[in-house]
Amino acid sequence: MKLYLKIWRQKNAKTKGNMVDYPLEGIENEMSFLEMLDVLNEELITKGEEPVEFDHDCREGICGSCSLMINGQPHGPDSGVSACQLHMRSFKDGDSIVIEPFRAKAFPIIKDLIVDRSAFDRIQQAGGYISVNTSGRPVDANAIPIDKHDADTAFYSAACIGCGACVAACKNASAMLFTSAKVSQFALLPQGKVEATERVLNMVRQMDLEGFGNCTNTGACEVECPKGISLENIARMNREYLSASVKG
Amino acid sequence: MGVLDSKVPKGPLADKWVNHKNKIDLVNPANKRNIDIIVVGTGLAGGSAAATLAELGYNVKTFCYQDSPRRAHSIAAQGGINAAKNYQGDGDSVYRLFYDTVKGGDYRSRESNVYRLAEVSTNIIDQCVAQGVPFAREYGGLLDNRSFGGVLVSRTFYAKGQTGQQLLLGAYSAMNRQIHRGKIKSFTRHEMLDMVLVDGKARGIIARDLVSGEIERHSAHAVVLATGGYGNLFFLSTYCMGANVMAAWKAHKRGAFFANPCFTQIHPTCIPVSGDHQSKLTLMSESLRNDGRIWVPAKKEDAIAIREGKLKPTQLAEEDRDYYLERRYPAFGNLVPRDVASRAAKERCDAGYGVNKTGEAVYLDFKAAITRYGTEKALMSGLNDPDEPTVKKLGEEVVEAKYGNLFQMYEKIVDQNPYKTPMMIYPAVHYTMGGLWVDYNLMTTIPGCYAAGEANFSDHGANRLGASALMQGLADGYFVLPYTIGDYLSNDIKTGAISTESPEFDEAEKHVRDRIVKLMSTNNQHSVDYYHKKLGKIMWNKCGMARNAKELKEAMDEIAELRKDFWENVKVTGAADTKNQELEKAGRVADFLELGELFAKDALERNESCGGHFREEYQTPEGEALRDDENYTYVAAWEYKGDPSKAELHKEELVYENIEVKTRSYK
Q1: Which of residues 558-577 of B touch A (CB under 8 A)?
Q2: Residue B278 within a domain
Q3: Which domain holds residue A104?
Q4: How many beta carbons lie within 10 A of that of residue B448, not counting itself?
Q5: Are A179 and A59 within one domain?
Q6: In terms of domains, do A107 and A121 share one?
Q7: Chain B residues touching residue A17 (CB < 8 angstroms)
């Protein structure tokens, strides 16, 4: 199929970027979206131009590197997948495809389609852990039975890949879904309850410091999340935050 | 010879590790504050090592090329992690896990290391649960287990098909805690380009900031390489796109021996290649072989009809299907180890029974499991005589709960529904058992340079069992290296900070800069991918699932020639002092073009078949691997001598005192 690509090109963080048109032929249904970009880049290299840079690594939907806004949707039109698992059969001959980086004040652009998401790391560093040293002598893993439902719910929260689609989808560029997923995972497990108060206060404080917006319950984040992280996490974090504030 | 001292402690196998820990030197807490350690790579091994070393009080610097430690490729491990907990009461024990791993590795791993791995495996599960890793649980609230290939017990802990993700996020959270405390300084989007030796000891690295392009010097008292495997040598693999051998290879060129480079794992259940555009292959977890039955059509004409799209697999009657693993290996059936399953798939496809358009695929069928689970669930729900659609529906629900994310992944890539029609799978490069040679303390032949996780060679022999990579990465990082490194660092308590202003750092930095200039000043003919794909083809065709002396020799020549061409004609666009993904790739492919030749040389030198290394000249009449214990019960550790073809072989004899070496049989 033949496609008409419009891609954001930006040399570095300091220079201004712009959209550039790239017509592209010879694309097949079986190709993944990123393989389509590989084809484009190979053409650009042949012509002596600089290829389009984009973050990608595992190409199987789990590392969370992909950060492409495709036709206005984070990770493109297919639901429940990141851009690397989007396949060209979702498009048809003659389509125009607009490709931009994830946009948010807290995600400054590094180059072309690559953004800096280190703000997410800093939110995790503020409290996204359980304080337990490696000793080789903790209690036996089966000493504390955990309700299967709680364990499964914690798992679904923990399945977040930290891609930032929630932020990119949100009109306020809020990181509530991301932050609440980690808060929820630990809030649901007995091991995480000990530090629950400090954790939620510290993570939310860091989230605000990074310049993410507030949540206005639009729910776009949940719709666009490639891993189906539920809005219930935000509700749980709000409860945790409220009770921590009262205690705190 | 005396070059290779494995430093295995004396005494009975079961006591070696405890005794060793009791005897090695320690560094007191106040002195740890004055000691710096560099950890390169932040996957399971590097992340867990960095966190634990920082907890102990050392000053740690971590380096990863990704934008966050959380994205290391350990995250993609699906099926699970082994531990000898014996929660199922099915007779598991430390000895049995040790035995299974040595046998699974075809008697080419170091006994004492494997025993230690089995011994600390139980601690890993305790540690991860304490960190809040949400493993799968049973309704009673206790941890669930499943089976993996090559074993007869159920010892694999899992979190759906995302076990690696959950374990890595556990290690990442432990790192975050130390970053927050200031004990770890995390350098993301950084790549190690060389290692710096001062007075023969590893004292630092040269790294490139991948955003600014700046070349940086970092010093430390010890350097830990936890940089994963080198399967991207084959271009197509289940590795992430950025996985590379650069750190390990640079250490090799500075004096670290490279062990058993030809021991590669070809995983039997990956989604088949669909065309020339393919950039990577996707694994379907081995755990699927718990419930999936592998087959090809029994008649060639059916296989041909399927390839031409005239026949559907679901139309084939039971008697027209060849469940070849169950036929050839009745004791282990679909759960034979990976090397055996891969070769059996290749054998059927080579014989003309393959499916898919390319003829390079076999079926992995869940129909029987769906019926079995559905019937069980119906009974438990009080339905004594359920109709077929109900059984199917209930069965599909059970299968979805177990493997939902894998089935979704398959459907997205292949555009077929694996609940309704069997999956198509084919072997693909997945893991490398070979790596930097290390002693019992995980130190390479460079003093102060350690290798952990997939980057080292010691635990998996010639074939790794499923769910053992996560186990080894975390064992090395959480429970082995943090102890053993103290023995070395105890001599450094008076050394003081290592300066980066020394002739050694000058030399290494110049070396790195010259190489970049050279990469960017060629005749500009072909892209980096052009060379990488060519190398991959040579590797897959001549150093892949079946190898022979003639083709291995050809591969060595072809790779050397390709390398020469690369350095004359590779085209690297953009500039060096900025973000430049082509330059990053070029540096990595340049290393693969050297390692590939050593790989072929190693495979050529090993005149036997063992584990993942199958030499066509050495097989039984039934086509099984034929080991030569008399001549090849050793680790091949290669010393760099200026060119991969000139590498010098050192042998570490493998001694089995606690296990009887016999022919591996899964029949």
Answers
A1: 571, 573-574
A2: yes
A3: 3-111
A4: 24
A5: no
A6: no
A7: none
